[in-house]
């Protein structure tokens, strides 16, 4: 609070009767005198920033609102008394032409200040998703698969880690190309590169649909390599997107946006959608990480290198047998039909002290267990990536509706084309 405002308490000091039936003189401040010498601009700096501004306006209104002929608040004080759009956005940089750029048209780039509508921005993301989906869908017919085999990277199978890294690198490269293109637009020369790359890394991608169309993989086959590379690329990009999504959740918690802090704010609906999407993303990621840690611990406890106690091993063996008994008859029937009686010995040793008895070999049971575990892992992967996709759509839908003209990428058609081309190349690499 400025010193001149603090001194007003002495300048406007007076004597007043204390309320209570008897006129007991007490030092007080003349409200009319105080309000005549104070207004919204009397305190600048932090008094005009977000929560301090809101408290300052409410204090002025409660103190001087009923004083006759006092007009110390700006005309839009009701909008300033709630969080504004810029207050709700967790970061301070913007994607819009700089104020010192007075050039509105260039012969090559067109209207540099024309901002695409919010619908066009969301349509851009949708087109990239649709193009990726169509490529993934067409690979089932074999058309794209035959084209992909002509590319040099598909001459021989690559490890899924290498392919996944390459796919993620292509997405980041597309973001970089778009940022460099934007910086060539007059008024956008100072666009932050790293910040925008990280923000665009959180764009929704239909990874769940790609993995779903690939089908249930078997360890080591082409489906496994395709699903693994797609999932590994998604893990890399989700790790990069954590920067802004976690920032959003932290900012919302700090300013009580999850507890009614945005009530009455302009564009409060899109803002709530944005923060709900970020919180949903964090919840899904937390559950996935928790399940992975639990699975790793269980694998460490029950792995082949650990000597399991007899009582515990007995329970595990019994539970597995009970779990597989309902599949055993069907499995045996299929094996007996495919193999002659002479090929199925009565007694078969599997090494060590373990011996199988009967006319049906249990050699295929390991394959059954392995396939069943892959089905569970496959379903969990599809569901988790689907939920992340929904969360990121909520985040971006809310953010675009909230920021509107504060997030104004130029030449959106060109940016969409670049994203689409790189996404198509990435989808072909997966195949």
Helix/strand order, N-terminal first = HHEEHHHHEEHHHHHHHHEEHH
Biggest beta-sheet profile? 2 strands, antiparallel
Structural class: mainly alpha
How helical, in percent, are the residues? 55-70%
- Shape designation: elongated
- Euclidean distance between termini CA atoms: 64 Å
- Whole-number mean pLDDT: 79
Number of strands: 6
- Report the radius of gyration as a whole number of Å: 32 Å
Which percent band covers the strand fraction? Answer: 5-15%
Total DSSP helices: 16
Contiguous uncertain segments of 5+ residues: 101-112, 305-326, 339-363
Q: Give me the side-by-side strand order of the main sheet.
A: 1-2
Transmembrane segments: 122-139, 160-182, 231-253, 273-293, 375-394, 414-430
Keywords: Membrane, Transmembrane, Transmembrane helix
Structure description:
The chain crosses the membrane at residues 122-139, 160-182, 231-253, 273-293, 375-394, 414-430. Keywords: Membrane, Transmembrane, Transmembrane helix. It is a single chain. The protein is mainly α and 431 residues long. The protein has helices at residues 3-6, 8-11, 31-36, 50-64, 77-80, 85-88, 118-138, 143-148, 160-183, 193-200, 207-214, 222-254, 268-302, 310-338, 365-403, 412-430, and strands at residues 13-18, 24-29, 105-106, 110-111, 347-349, 355-357. The chain is built from 16 helices and six strands. The strands form three sheets. Strands 1-2 form a two-stranded antiparallel sheet. Helix 9 (160-183) crosses helix 10 and helix 9 (160-183) runs antiparallel to helix 16. The longest helix has 39 residues, at 365-403. The chain is elongated and about 95 Å long. Residues 101-112, 305-326 and 339-363 have low confidence and may be disordered.
């Amino acid at each position: 609070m400025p010193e001149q405002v603090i001194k007003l308490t002495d300048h406007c000091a007076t004597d007043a009767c204390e309320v209570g039936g008897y006129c007991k003189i007490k030092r007080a401040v003349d409200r009319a005198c105080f309000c005549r010498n104070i207004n919204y601009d009397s305190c600048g700096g932090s008094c005009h920033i977000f929560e301090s501004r809101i408290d300052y306006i409410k204090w002025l209104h409660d103190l001087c609102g009923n004083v006759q002929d006092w007009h110390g608040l700006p005309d839009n004080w009701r909008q300033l008394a709630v969080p504004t759009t810029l207050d709700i956005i967790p970061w301070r940089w913007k994607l819009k032409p700089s104020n010192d750029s007075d050039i509105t048209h260039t012969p090559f780039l067109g209207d540099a200040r024309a901002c695409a509508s919010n619908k066009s921005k969301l349509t851009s993301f949708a087109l990239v998703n649709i193009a990726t989906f169509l490529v993934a869908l067409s690979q089932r017919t074999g058309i794209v698969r035959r084209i992909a085999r002509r590319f040099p990277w598909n001459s021989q199978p690559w490890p899924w880690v290498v392919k996944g890294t390459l796919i993620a690198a292509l997405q980041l490269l597309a973001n970089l190309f778009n940022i460099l293109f934007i910086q060539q637009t007059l008024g956008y020369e100072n666009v932050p590169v790293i910040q925008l790359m990280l923000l665009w890394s959180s764009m929704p991608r239909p990874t769940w649909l790609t993995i779903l169309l690939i089908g249930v993989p078997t360890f080591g086959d082409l489906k496994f390599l395709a699903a693994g590379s797609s999932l590994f690329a998604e893990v890399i990009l989700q790790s990069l997107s954590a920067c802004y999504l976690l920032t959003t959740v932290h900012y919302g918690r700090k300013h009580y946006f999850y507890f009614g802090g945005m009530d009455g704010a302009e564009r409060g609906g899109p803002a709530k959608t944005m923060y709900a999407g970020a919180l949903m993303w964090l919840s899904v990621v937390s559950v996935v990480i928790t399940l992975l840690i639990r699975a790793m611990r269980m694998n460490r406890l029950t792995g082949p290198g650990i000597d399991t106690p007899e009582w515990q091993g007995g329970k595990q063996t019994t539970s597995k047998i009970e779990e597989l008994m309902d599949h055993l008859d069907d499995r045996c029937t299929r094996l007996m039909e495919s193999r002659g009686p002479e090929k199925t010995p009565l007694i078969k040793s599997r090494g060590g002290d373990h011996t199988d008895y009967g006319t049906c070999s249990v050699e295929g049971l390991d394959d059954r267990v392995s396939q069943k575990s892959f089905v569970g892992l496959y379903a969990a992967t599809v569901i988790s990536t689907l939920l992340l996709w929904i969360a990121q759509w909520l985040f971006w839908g809310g953010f675009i509706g909230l920021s509107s003209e504060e997030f104004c990428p130029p030449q959106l058609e060109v940016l969409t084309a670049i994203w689409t081309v790189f996404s198509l190349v990435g989808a072909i690499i997966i195949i």
